[in-house]
Design brief:
Layout lengths: L13 H14 L2 E7 L8 H13 L4 E7 L15 H7 L3 H6 L2 E7 L7 H8 L9 E8 L5 H13 L3 E2 L4 E4 L1 H4 L10 H27 L5
Parallel strand pairs: 1-2, 1-3, 3-4, 4-5, 4-6
Length: 218
């Protein structure tokens, strides 16, 4: 027979400790990784990215990390045993994706679709994407990059993400920003960004809370 002492009743149970840990994690801001998808020479992406990052930084419920694919050199040939050089490039990206609760993908439209640099970083990872929400901000000419977004949705669906319905798109993007990188008439874009970020936060909280109770796929 195991003796139970009265002092044990003053100690927190393991379930109470776990509940406290989950509660503490649940109160932390959502970790959002913004992926700047273009690595093209002379790209317009950094201007749109700075607009986007400034909107994310305004929110106390979100914490920010940036993955700029112009700073990463991942090969298009995938490997289960990457070389030391490739592993070093992955180390710039993988920890940020793994730590993220949610993603915002910033993409241009190249030839009716998204850039190869973006497909490469997607394909090099799997578990890092699962059971997390993904929002999209796009830019381009008349289509505003929306065709790139629609091509990305089934790719991310295959990776078990939840893609956010509402997007932010910049049509004829070059004409929308002044020489200092400021949006000339930001009211509409700001309103669209709020809707998108609100939805991303809702799904981020919901999925993070669900995974704290039961790991995805179990």
């Amino acid at each position: 027979m195991t003796e139970t002492t009265s002092s044990s009743s003053t100690l927190p149970s393991s379930s109470a400790t776990a509940s406290s840990t989950v509660s503490s994690d649940a109160d932390a801001p959502l970790r959002v990784a913004v992926i700047i998808g273009s690595n093209r020479e002379g790209r317009f992406g950094p201007i749109v990215a700075e607009w986007l990052l400034s909107r994310v930084r305004e929110r106390s419920d979100l914490s920010l990390d940036v993955v700029d694919l112009a700073e990463v050199d991942l090969p298009t040939s995938l490997s289960f045993d990457p070389s030391a050089a490739v592993a070093a490039e992955l180390a710039k990206v993988t920890p940020k994706l793994a730590a993220a609760d949610a993603f915002i993908v910033l993409t241009p439209e190249y030839n009716h679709s998204y850039p190869a640099s973006l497909k490469s970083v997607v394909d090099w990872h799997k578990a890092e994407w699962e059971a997390k929400p993904v929002a999209f901000v796009s830019y381009g000419g008349l289509s505003g990059g929306l065709r790139a977004v629609e091509h990305l949705r089934p790719v991310f669906a295959e990776l078990h993400t939840v893609t956010i319905r509402d997007t932010v798109s910049f049509h004829n993007a070059g004409a929308l920003f002044d020489d200092a990188g400021n949006h000339r008439d930001p009211a509409g874009a700001d309103a669209a960004a709020k809707v998108m970020l609100d939805q991303l936060a809702w799904w981020g909280w919901a999925l993070r809370g669900a995974k704290a109770v039961r790991p995805y796929g179990s």
